[in-house]
Each structure stands twice: as C-alpha cells, then as structure tokens.
Fold this sequence. Notes:
The protein is mainly alpha-helical. It has four helices and two strands, in the order αββααα. It has helices at residues 12-48, 60-88, 94-119, 130-140, and strands spanning 50-51, 54-55. It has a two-stranded antiparallel ribbon. The longest helix has 37 residues, at 12-48.
Amino acid sequence: DAANVLGDIGLGYRYCINILNEGRIGIAAQQIGIAKGCLDIALPYMMERKQFGQAIANFQGIQHQYAQIATEIHAAEVMTYNACRMKENGIPFVKEASMAKLYSSQTAEKAASKTIEWLGGIGFTKDLLAEKFYRDCKVGSIYEGT
Length: 146
C-alpha cells in the first residue's frame, strides 16, 4: 500500500546510499576519538614506565612515534571537518567523507597498535583500554564502506 511507503517509490536505494555517505563522516569522527583515547592512555604510562633509569617517553625514538601518530590524528580531523563543512554547505562531499573515513580508520588502527606496543604486556590486558580500542577501531575500516 503506497500510504505506508516512506519517501518516494523507487528511490529506496538512493536514500540508503545517502545515509551511508553521511554515516562515513560519523565513523571518521568515531575513529578519531578512538585514536585520541589511545594517546590519552599511552602518554601517562610512558611518563611513568622506566627503562635504563628514565621514563620511556624521554627516548627520542618513542617521541618520534608519538609525534607521527599525533600528526596523523590531526590530519584525520582536518579531513573530517572538511567533509562536514562541505555537507553542511550543500557541496558534494562523498569523496571527502570516504577519504576521511578511510584515513581515520587507518590512523586509529595504527594508534591502537602503537599504544599496545608502548604499553608492553599490560597493553593486552583489560587493565587499560588499549585492547578494547584495538578491537573497536578494526570494525571502523569495515562498516559503512569507503
């Protein structure tokens, strides 16, 4: 019965695709949050954990890795905000939303993996959220498509 149809008949696929396109921006933002959460738990631990008489955060190799992840998170944020801006202004945004989702997902996975490395053995336990973040970010590269 046509009275029970939402929207126009024959446009269901278009409606679904538009929802997925918008959803990619939300997934990108979710992945950025996961990546930032990783850094939030990693830095205090790296300041506390000592090797060779000093905090591991003082080692230049660790600082380079941390700076790389922080830079990639910032780039993911810029891409996501750009896709939002375009959508809000009625500018075609599908490519930008897809790119933001892809890059944010990759960044979150990299941040979660590095966080587990930085935390050492405790990174695999449920004492900290690193193992949860790693699981959560993996699905971000799968759902809503790219």
